[in-house]
Write a structure and sequence with these properties.
215 residues, mainly alpha, MetI-like fold, flat
Length: 215
Amino acid sequence: MGLIADHIGVFGSGLLVSAEISACTFVLATLLGAVLAVCRISPVPPLRIFSRLYVAVVRSVPLLVLLTLFVFGLPEIGVVYSLQWTAVTAMSLYWAAFLCEVLRAGVRAVPRGQIEAARALGLSFGQTLRLVVLPQAARSVIQPAASLFIAVTLSSSLAAAVGVTQELTGQTELLDQKYAQPLVTFGAAAVIYVAIALCVGRLAGYLDRKLEVAR
């Protein structure tokens, strides 16, 4: 425990970087996932085909392979920016495919009769989506989206494998290399990840209950 107490700041800084990577990834993935979900239900066939292919292809590629491709492949074609944001970009593109399916499932949970009623009132596809479908779909995707946020947070540890040593797992590896106490260092990191997952789960449960009452 002395090692943890002496390096609490290291774990804290690593946690902040992991939180930044996770939050940025989730926000960008949600935005892209929403666009893909709209394309999946769009009346325009090319958009539906593109979205379906994107989801199928990206979900078939391991995240670590995608991270390696972006981090080490992009510089070879002259695309160079910070290592952390390269990891965020790759992770956002990856998790957008999963969020697309979560959002699409939420849209499909909206009663068909309400969509038909909105169209009968003369609302366009965009208006129906914005005023009728999305507000209701958002309520049903809280728990699945929270599970994906936990998955995003845990997968941020893979950034250490491609050189982002500032995040929690990367900092833990550096401590272990220095002190050779993997049980202590990685045990502490595991506790932190478990705490994050539990907090997110509790928050999602609270929001779900509040919205259930509102319904």
